[in-house]
């Protein structure tokens, strides 16, 4: 697990306090006006939705079930292990990077009506047949989340599913897009601090940078439902950046987590 920068530490108590703060902010929101959903290539239309600024680079719209995060394109070529990471962590294997702490995104999702579940995991076990090893795959749980990339191209507002920027090549040489309806609010995990951090606990994604995972590291805030082991000797690289579809590196992106109108998957 490669990281180069630690973000502010969050504990389970911090998440509760941040969630309460978001509730207070949301109560000040104005009533929403009717908004025409943006389509790819649609002309920009001015509107005044009930958006609340939670922190720098982070906004919520409870009435529309959206959490919006400022991001930028960080990788346009190569194999992917993440879709979105925290700045200074996994940019070499992620499409987008954000400056907002993962724990604060978690709090914003909670207060926008999402239910957190748990990240996926995988383990190896002896099959009992000639020493063969088989995998036990435990998929992530949590509220379903649609992930949208929105950006300006001249006087146009562009909006696509973030998964449209990811592809795999089939045996006949044709490309297929990553499914867009396979992400859930897993919620990362809270662990006891190592001795180096002193007493207490921490929100793991704040240290690893895993915001939207593709490969299963087990610490993602938002997780891909299909468990993909994080070892290439177990699961060879499959998904890569679809370069021709991705804006230039450094392009500002509004990353939108949008509530999908269906029952949470595996969450209580």
Question: Could you characterize what this model shows?
Answer:
The chain is mainly beta. It has one domain (12-30, 44-259). The protein contains three helices and 21 strands. The chain has helices at 12-26, 102-111, 205-208; strands at residues 42-43, 52-55, 58-61, 66-73, 82-86, 96-98, 116-118, 121-126, 133-138, 141-142, 145-153, 156-161, 166-169, 175-177, 183-185, 190-192, 201-203, 210-213, 222-224, 240-241, 252-259. Strands 1, 2, 3, 4, 5, 6, 11, 12, 18 and 21 form a ten-stranded mixed beta sheet that branches. Strands 14-13-20 form a three-stranded antiparallel beta sheet, with no helix packed on it. Helix 1 (12-26) crosses helix 2. The longest helix has 15 residues, at 12-26.
- Counting helices, strands and paired strands, the structural category is mainly beta
Helix amount, in percent?
10-25%
What integer value in Å does the Rg equal?
19 Å
Largest sheet: 10 strands, mixed
The amount of beta strand, in percent, is 25-35%
SSE pattern: HEEEEEEHEEEEEEEEEEEHEEEE
Q: Stretches where pLDDT falls below 50 for ≥5 residues?
A: 1-7, 22-47, 263-268
SS summary, helix count: 3
Mean pLDDT: 83
Task: Give the tally of β-strands.
Answer: 21
End-to-end Cα distance: 30 Å
Number of domains: 1
Shape: globular
List the helices and strands and how they pair.
Layout: H1 12-26, E1 42-43, E2 52-55, E3 58-61, E4 66-73, E5 82-86, E6 96-98, H2 102-111, E7 116-118, E8 121-126, E9 133-138, E10 141-142, E11 145-153, E12 156-161, E13 166-169, E14 175-177, E15 183-185, E16 190-192, E17 201-203, H3 205-208, E18 210-213, E19 222-224, E20 240-241, E21 252-259
Parallel strand pairs: 5-6
Antiparallel strand pairs: 1-12, 2-3, 3-4, 4-6, 4-21, 5-18, 7-10, 8-9, 11-12, 11-21, 13-14, 13-20, 15-19, 16-17
